[in-house]
Amino acid sequence: MSAERLLLTFQESHQHLGGRGRRVRRRSGILTLEDVLEELVGELQDEFDEETPDFLPLRRGGFLVSAGMLLEAVTARLGVTLDEEIEADTLGGYVQQQLGRLGKVGDESASGPTPCGSSRRGAGGCSSCSSSPGPAAGGAPRGG
Asked: How many separate domains does the chain show?
């Protein structure tokens, strides 16, 4: 049964928990409404999930930053300013603007004040970027 059909079944029956059976009176698994919603829209954060920080210092230097973090907050944390015309609101949008496409793991952009590389894959692009402190060497973004 498709995720869309399962969602309709949960809605029609006003249930949040369902069983999946293979034979009469034998269950082979349990489905929750949350499982179905996550299949349709991606991971959902709830009170039982551990939140990952948006901005995490790395032991080897640099930072791991959520691609969804506001660019203004990233530049404030790094203590840098961006002189160029930027149409993006988030770090992921900025990297996408620099690359001219969605980021992939291993992509690097050194055109701003700090080199930035895409380091983790999420739905529709990268979900986090790693950044090294200090001025960039300059140059065009490199794709992998």
From this structure: 2
One domain for residues 117 and 73: yes
Per-residue model confidence as pLDDT tens digits over 98-122: 888 877 777 776 654 444 555 554 5
Rounded to two decimals, the pTM is 0.48
Residue partners of 90: CB distance under 8 A and separation at least 6: 67, 68, 69, 70, 71
- Does any domain span residue 92? yes
Residues 34 and 91 in one domain: no
For 40-94, write each residue's pLDDT tens digit.
887 777 777 777 778 888 788 877 888 888 888 888 888 888 777 888 888 888 8
Residue labelled with tokens 């698994």: 29
The 3-state DSSP class for residue 25 equals: coil
User: Residue 31: inside a domain, yes or no?
Assistant: yes
The answer to whether the CB of 93 falls within 8 A of the CB of 71 is yes
